[in-house]
Specification:
The complex is a heterodimer of chains A (350) and B (772). With 350 residues, chain A is mostly helical. Chain A is built from 14 helices and four strands. Chain A folds into two domains: 33-209, no CATH class; 214-343, Up-down Bundle (Four Helix Bundle (Hemerythrin (Met), subunit A)). Chain A starts with a helix and ends in a 7-residue tail after the last helix. Chain B has four domains: 2-256, no CATH class; 268-377; 382-482; 488-757, no CATH class. The chains are: A mainly alpha (350), B mainly alpha (772).
Chain lengths: 350, 772
């Protein structure tokens, strides 16, 4: 009898708990989150479409030479233009995906897209997260589970994966010398992977349209993304030309500062958090204010640094101080978001 | 009751309003941020720096009304002087002192508010704090917030709230102290004088918050010793000797001791995060002509984050581990530091280490950690277990994709062993229905088919995916139930209830069996039954001790061992049952005709051994199950509450046992025999049902689910009846066998009596000897 009462008690408590969370969810404005996801994916789609078209142009040029890459290399301008457009498309699509990866990977119905687009391993690499697709090439061959699509296209475009490159050296970036990534991609692989990336992005958009966001999704996305402020963005910036000048050894983030990326990301975090404002305010108005103040203040701080770096050069020690302060700010915000989630009965999983 | 609810609602509303009106947490954050900006401006724009310090000071003066401000005003004066003289190091140091001073004051205010149950003040100070550094993979705790919320709602006492608040805050500030000392080491290596000054002051400030706990653990004299070491460090922040002196004095100190669950969480995080470092690193670099090139920064960043998270989790375990093996701890710390240097180089695209080197170093470090961290520390974290199980299930699916069903089966068994070794027993305690569902999904369940069933029929990957998703969802649900903190009291109660329930079952089975042997002629057969029962008690204790040590290896065989023991129990019970009806019940009435045979029975070694085995197996089934439950409770909350609960439960079981046996002896003999026969019948029915279920779970028996029939959960728990054709048929056969055995015995008895009557009426005809 006691056991039965216990079970009934648990059932009642569980039902009440679920109802409470559902009530809180209805209090939140989670549509904002879905809109944000769809807007970002729209930008990603624009990038992947550009990549797809440029890859097609490159494929046509290669086909005209019967895939004789040495001959193709002689068609310098057309090849450089096609590959530049392809790289630009990739550069546009990939960072945008990073800004929504926290949502895509955290939502069960979308998570397989994360594996196939950005996180999955190839069959050769093995591990616990292998992509689920095979890549059919225009020449009839099939690459069995070649790894995630951003990785395959990157490997082909920057020749970082030998198997995806023709191995014929070519001044892709047009800087007059053969340096990192200067090789012609395998046209069949680039075209097939770019097509697949664009198609899968479209599929992700249409699946996302059927998704109903939950409080757990949004809290999860925020607690996974806000702590990246310092270790991802500021750390890159710290070792870039913007801080180290000529002593910088990294080749990326030298044209556009990583602070700019961070600023855009904070804007997206603010959008995400906006969806939670009604629910958090109803529970603890002050906590809501602290979170919003924290995010706005972080954005203002990064904007200020971004404008300052145009006129001043921070020392490595100052850059370290900036990194630690950014980490402190991000942790303070994340900590408060976690407290809000706990008060709303939402368990944040990492 | 209504008025209490109303008061709670009003208090909550008032608390919310009070918080909205007064927000010292935001002000404090703002002051800290302004002072950081001021420090940066000292070099570029001094007037801007002065303006920022003034703004910070004004904010401070107009807020924190209940704080004693004298010391803070002195700090602001020092900041202004440092600003004027351009002394960045002093500015940084003072800034850190002021900030940690505010944190300390807020923490003291919070403690006092909780102690005095001043909930609005507690809410006011609650968010003026720092958390453990958040990463993409680990979020700060919320225990203090939830405790204060529960205090406001009058769900917990102020004493309980205080314990939770202290544990959360002290854990966070100890982590911050470790971060400061770690960052100081880095700053010293880079000869960053300003950053070193700041970090030394931060370390002093965080230690100040922890100092009451330090004094309580190690005494006032040791406290003064650390404070002196920290003062020296603040005076010469670039001195590595001074830093070592501080670290040495902090060795083995833990302000908020980790509970077994937290300890397991940290152990699990250390190992789990570490294994992910080479995975990420390998994806971030490529090798070309012996040169390592970084081509994906995000992967390097993630590798760094995993390494930092692993090192941070290990630093929480360090105080407990350093007492047993200081050298190993120091070696591990050095290994972490060396890996960090390599990954920092990779992040800067400056001479990154090769993937092979990183992988080898991680493997070596992992081996050292596995040797150092006790095995049971890694077993109690359901969330950690779940991650590993999920990973194994993905491997299973990959193996299915490759049509490697052997590998898939191996992954399934590993995943199940992980579940059974840690979390399953607790799920059985808190959510038994869920445990059954999960078991079905792992083994031979239907709708969706269990993984074992899918592997056996080499099903499609889509079917595997459906089952995997269902299983993951159920496991996630399970973690929600078992992942909550268990207080020693609740563990004590759980252990008591479990041992009492299982013990009661054992007593009833034993009473039923012993009751059958009440007649003077067979009383001596009680002895082997008691011996078997006693042996099972000893075996249960041995099992408990063995499982403490080799749980992982043992867990794989857990279900199968239970199945084997159950089958033996059923077999012996059936044999003995048959013997009972033919000898005890029947012979009882024919005692005069069989005196000689009874004497022989007393010396029959086979029967005696059979009864020992019956006593052993019938009792050990319960003992084994109890061990599994208790083991998981030990992992959750330690040995003491579990053993205490078990001891009290055993006393109660003994008491009930005595009462049952006394009651049994008071019953008229015939009634007792009928009651005992019925009890044995029920025992056999339940054991056959449970054994069938167990055999189906481990895949040793087919499953034909009954269409339409949905049995409630309690039929499985109490009667061993599950909605499968095999289970029900075997239970019916078992009961039919017992009842049939009784009627056959009765028939033989009447036949024999008739023959004897006939012989008596016709003397001279030789009497046929009835064989037993």
């Amino acid at each position: 009898m006691q056991k039965r009462q216990f079970h009934i008690g648990v059932l009642v408590l569980t039902t009440l708990g679920s109802s409470l969370v559902m009530a809180q969810a209805s209090n939140a404005n989670l549509g904002v989150v879905k809109n944000y996801l769809l807007i970002q994916l729209g930008v990603q789609k624009a990038g992947s479409s550009s990549l797809k078209m440029a890859a097609q142009r490159y494929y046509d040029l290669a086909k005209n030479t019967n895939f004789d890459y040495n001959k193709l290399a002689s068609n310098k301008n057309a090849v450089q233009n096609a590959l530049k457009d392809a790289r630009d498309g990739w550069r546009k699509a990939s960072p945008v995906y990073e800004s929504v990866e926290g949502i895509v990977a955290g939502v069960e119905m979308l998570s397989i897209f994360d594996v196939n687009l950005d996180a999955g391993m190839s069959k050769t690499e093995g591990g616990d997260s292998i992509v689920t697709f095979d890549l059919k090439l225009p020449n009839g061959k099939t690459l069995e589970k070649p790894g995630n699509l951003f990785g395959v296209t990157e490997g082909a475009l920057w020749a970082s994966e030998k198997a995806f490159s023709s191995s014929v050296k070519f001044d892709v970036d047009g800087d007059g010398k053969i340096g990192f990534g200067d090789a012609l991609p395998d046209a069949n692989i680039l075209k097939a992977a770019a097509d697949k990336l664009d198609g899968m992005t479209a599929e992700l958009i249409s699946t996302s349209k059927t998704w109903t966001p939950t409080l757990e999704n949004v809290f999860g996305a925020l607690t996974a993304n806000v702590p990246t402020a310092a270790p991802v963005f500021i750390d890159r910036w710290k070792t870039s030309r913007f801080v180290l000048g000529d002593a910088a050894t990294r080749r990326d983030f030298n044209a556009i500062s990583s602070l700019d990326d961070l600023n855009q990301n904070i804007a997206s975090w603010l959008t995400l958090y906006r969806g939670l404002v009604p629910a958090v305010t109803a529970k603890n108005a002050s906590l809501n204010k602290q979170i919003q103040d924290g995010l706005n203040s972080l954005k203002a701080w990064v904007s200020k640094l971004e404008s300052q770096e145009k006129t001043r050069r921070f020392s490595p020690e100052q850059a370290e101080l900036i990194l630690k302060e950014s980490d402190n700010r991000a942790t303070a915000i994340t900590g408060k978001i976690v407290q809000a989630a706990a008060l709303l009965g939402v368990k944040v999983s990492n | 009751m209504k008025s209490r609810t109303l008061i709670t609602v009003v208090l909550l509303a008032l608390g919310n309003q009070a918080l909205a009106a007064s927000d010292d947490a935001s002000t404090a954050e703002d002051i800290r941020a302004k002072l950081v900006s001021a420090q940066l401006e000292m070099v570029f724009d001094k007037s801007q720096a002065e303006e920022l310090v003034l703004e910070a000071q004004n904010s401070f003066n107009s807020s924190f009304q209940s704080l004693e401000k004298t010391e803070f005003q002195k700090d602001f004066q020092t900041l202004n002087i440092a600003l004027k003289t351009g002394n960045e190091a002093v500015f940084a140091q003072t800034r850190a002192r002021l900030w940690t001073g505010i944190l300390n004051a807020a923490y003291i205010k919070l403690e006092n508010a909780v102690k005095s149950q001043n909930t609005s003040a507690a809410n006011e100070w609650l968010n003026l704090r720092e958390y453990r550094l958040a990463t993409r993979f680990t979020s700060p705790d919320s225990d203090a917030t939830l405790a204060v919320a529960s205090l406001i709602e009058q769900k917990i006492s102020s004493a309980d709230a205080l314990i939770a608040v202290r544990a959360d805050y002290l854990d966070a500030y100890q982590a911050r102290l470790n971060n400061a000392l770690h960052d100081l080491e880095g700053a010293q290596q880079n000869k960053y004088a300003i950053l070193s000054a700041e970090m030394s002051a931060l370390a002093t400030g965080y230690f100040q918050i922890l100092s009451p706990a330090y004094a309580q653990n190690l005494g006032e004299s040791a406290l003064k010793d650390v404070q002196n070491a920290l003062s020296k460090l603040e005076l010469q922040p670039l001195s590595s000797v001074n830093l070592s002196a501080v670290k040495t004095r902090l060795e083995g100190f833990r302000a908020a001791p980790l509970s077994p669950k937290e300890r397991a969480k940290r152990a699990s995080q250390t190992l789990r995060f570490l294994t992910l470092v080479p995975v990420e690193y390998g994806r971030g670099v490529s090798e070309s002509n012996g040169v390592t090139v970084v081509n994906r920064d995000l992967e390097i960043t993630e590798a760094k984050t995993f390494l930092t998270s692993a090192a941070s989790a290990f630093s929480d375990l360090e105080p407990a581990l350093i007492k047993t093996n200081k050298n190993a701890v120091n070696q591990i710390k050095n290994d972490f530091a060396a890996l960090e240097v390599g990954l920092n180089n990779a992040a800067a695209h400056n001479n990154p280490p090769s993937f092979k080197d990183v992988q080898e170093n991680i493997e070596n470090l992992n081996t050292k950690l596995e040797q150092l961290i006790p095995a049971d520390w890694r077993r109690a974290d359901p969330a950690g277990d779940l991650d590993v199980i999920k990973s194994q299930l993905r491997q299973l699916e990959n193996a299915v994709g490759e049509k490697s069903f052997d590998l898939a089966e191996s992954a399934r068994v590993s995943a199940y062993a992980m579940l059974e070794g840690g979390t399953e027993a607790r799920i059985k305690v808190f959510q038994p229905q869920l445990a059954t569902t999960i078991e079905g999904l792992f083994w031979n369940g239907v709708q969706p088919d269990g993984l074992a069933r899918l592997i056996a029929r080499k099903a499609s990957i889509d079917e595997f995916k459906t089952t995997r998703l269902a299983l993951e969802a159920k496991l996630q649900e399970a973690v929600r139930y078992v992942g909550t903190n268990a207080s020693p009291t609740s563990t004590f109660v759980n252990a008591l209830v479990i041992v009492f329930r299982e013990g009661l079952e054992a007593v009833l089975i034993l009473a039923a069996l012993l009751g059958s042997l009440k007649a003077p002629a067979v009383r001596h057969l009680r002895r082997p039954l008691w011996m078997g029962a006693a042996a099972s008690f000893v075996a249960t204790i041995v099992t408990f001790m063995v499982m403490q040590r080799i749980l992982n290896a043992f867990a794989i065989f857990g279900e199968k061992l239970e199945a084997v023991v159950s089958v033996i129990a059923v077999a012996v019970l059936l044999v003995i049952m048959n013997w009972f009806f033919h000898n005890v019940y029947w012979n009882e009435h024919l005692a005069n005709f069989h005196k000689k045979k009874h004497q022989l029975m007393g010396t029959n070694i086979g029967q005696g051994l059979g009864l020992v085995v019956l006593g052993f197996t019938a009792m050990y089934r319960e003992g084994f199950e109890t061990v599994l439950f208790m083991q998981s409770l030990v992992l959750q909350s330690g040995l003491t509450p579990v053993l205490s609960g078990a001891a009290i439960a055993l006393s109660l079981v003994t008491l009930v046992g005595v009462l049952v046996f006394v009651l049994q002896s008071k019953l008229p003999h015939k009634k007792m025999l009928v009651a005992t026969g019925a009890m044995i019948c029920v025992v056999l029915f339940v054991i056959v049902g449970n054994t069938t279920h167990m055999l189906q779970v481990v895949g040793w028996m087919t499953i034909h689910p009954l269409p339409i029939v949905v049995l409630p959960y309690w039929t499985g728990l109490w009667l061993g009846t599950y909605a499968t054709l095999e289970g029900l048929v075997l239970q019916v056969i078992a009961v039919t066998f017992v009842i049939g055995s009784y009627f056959v015995a009765e028939g033989l008895k009447h036949k024999d009596l008739a023959r004897k009557l006939e012989t008596a009426q016709n003397p001279g005809v030789p009497q046929k000897v009835v064989s037993n």
